[in-house]
Amino acid sequence: MYIYGFQKTTLLDYPGKLASLIFTGGCNFRCPYCQNGELVTGGAEAEPFCEADILGHLKKRAEIIEGLVISGGEPTLQTDLVEFAGKVKELGISVKLDTNGTNPDVVEELVSRGLVDYIAMDIKQCPEKYALTAGLPTGRAPSENSNDTALAAVSGGSIPPWGISERLVENAQRTAEFLLSGPVDYEFRTTFVDGLFEDSDFSAIAAWIHGAKRYYIQPYRESEGVIAPEKCTTPSDERLERILKLLQKEMPETTVELRGYELPEKEA
Hints:
The structure is a single chain. The protein is an alpha/beta fold. Helix content is 32%, strand content 18%. The protein has an eight-stranded mixed sheet. It starts with a strand and ends in a 10-residue tail after the last strand.
């Protein structure tokens, strides 16, 4: 596992559990609003964390730490993810996976082998606009001059061929359908960047993941690690409230909430 970030404790990243959090290197998306830009593009210069040290910490704190969140980057690009998750489960610790859903075979294997307890899948956009919002090339593989060589180095050469954007979008749709079928506890979440979404896009997403357990809207916030901050704007409170009400109306069976932000209370 190529692990470039390790947070020993978090109460925010695994619902209902005190957890540790790791960040893997490499990603096959280039979302302009991504806050882990160095992990995604191959710019991380630090040495990766030792897997044995992380497992040792979890073993030592197993009576306190209830879960491990595996995030990134995109963790399913790691060729030994299944093996690593198995080692964590052997310690009696629950595993949460954060994923963009583009490797459904890996997700399905983790679930079928009982190696993951909760999955958070990012829904980047409605299917028709997915590639644009995820920063993908349209219908072509990257050139030899792209930064994929650096990305492959960060992820240990384990990143699969990009193929075409359409294939990655189809894979994300397959993973979403798999989660909707109910084999494991899950949530969907979307980072809401003003300018990248029309109101109708959220209606299309609601129709796509209709019947989901949970759907969280995460308003974009500026940070130093964002890949393309010049393309990103935080939505206004008025628009957040409008989209939240739209989704709650169109997804009555789903828990729909804002995450990481509270709308100001209106004066009576």
